[in-house]
Specification:
The chain has helices at 2-24, 31-52, 60-81, 84-87, 89-94, 101-127, 136-162, 168-182, 205-218, 223-247, 251-254. The protein is mainly alpha-helical. It has one domain. Helix 3 (60-81) packs antiparallel against helix 6 (101-127) and helix 3 (60-81) runs parallel beside helix 7 (136-162).
Length: 255
């Protein structure tokens, strides 16, 4: 058991290192590319909603950033893992190894990029005369586990299904866009009509983003949202692993 666990850990590390090397190979700016996308979107949304539409809200740029960075991890992972098995067809056909390590390593890689974004969040906190809270020491590790569980579960489900239903890749792209606008990233919950507010927890990403925002923006541990997100994560991981186990033996045949 110990040997198989060590083998799996080593495999994950090798795959993650390979993916990081490929992503940053010949990229002079390196680290900056991991934060450029959410910062660019934050700038665009700031101009659109606060400069042009004149939405009245304090520290709106900070509000956007603490929502966009966790969202980038989630959306990038799902968008990338749709084709992870197809992209590694050669290895899957020739080498016998746990295939679920491939989406695992990609989600882990995006989690690392998210961790790289934390200094940027701290910088914007300081710009708006706020400081990191001691609750980060407890909240960040818990939230990392929760978001990783949810994202990996969905990634495992999507990547497995996509081998047999190739339209899944396009469908996921559409769903990610829809979920983005139905998630309170660009707007606070207070802007949602009161009769519809209870419905936001039906979107699995909403409680996750609200928990991150409460932690970063106010230093508050949103236990209710964290537990709801954990529940979604456990369900996603359970369903994703069941689908993967049912289909994994056919992977080499359809690639």
């Amino acid at each position: 058991m110990k040997r198989s666990l060590q083998y799996y850990i080593d495999l994950i590390l090798v795959l993650t290192q390979k993916d990081l090397h490929v992503r940053y190979k010949s990229n002079i700016l390196g680290y900056l590319w991991s934060i450029a996308n959410p910062l660019a979107f934050a700038f665009v949304f700031y101009v659109a909603f606060q400069v042009i539409m004149r939405i009245k809200m304090e520290a709106y740029v900070l509000f956007l950033i603490v929502g966009l960075f966790p969202w980038q991890w989630f959306s990038n992972s799902l968008a990338t893992t749709t084709t992870v098995f197809l992209a590694n067809a050669g290895i899957i056909k020739k080498v016998n190894f746990p295939r679920n390590a491939l989406p695992f390593s990609l989600v882990l890689q995006d989690m690392i990029h998210f961790l790289f974004s934390l200094p940027v969040i701290v910088l914007f906190l300081l710009i708006y005369h706020k400081v990191p809270h001691w609750s980060w020491l407890i909240g960040i590790p818990i939230m990392l586990v929760i978001q990783f569980t949810l994202t990996y579960g969905l990634a495992l489900f999507i990547s497995s299904i996509n081998l047999f239903f190739r339209d899944m890749e396009r469908l996921v792209g559409i769903l990610i866009t829809l979920v983005f606008y139905f998630t309170p990233i660009l707007y606070p919950v207070s802007m949602i009509p009161e009769k519809y507010r209870p419905l936001i927890i039906l979107n699995p990403i909403s409680p996750l983003i609200l928990a991150w925002r409460g932690l970063f923006f106010e230093g508050r541990l949103e236990w209710m949202y964290m537990l709801i997100s954990l529940g979604y994560g456990v369900v996603a991981l359970f369903v994703g692993y069941l689908v993967y186990r049912k289909l994994a033996w056919k992977f080499a045949e359809v690639l």
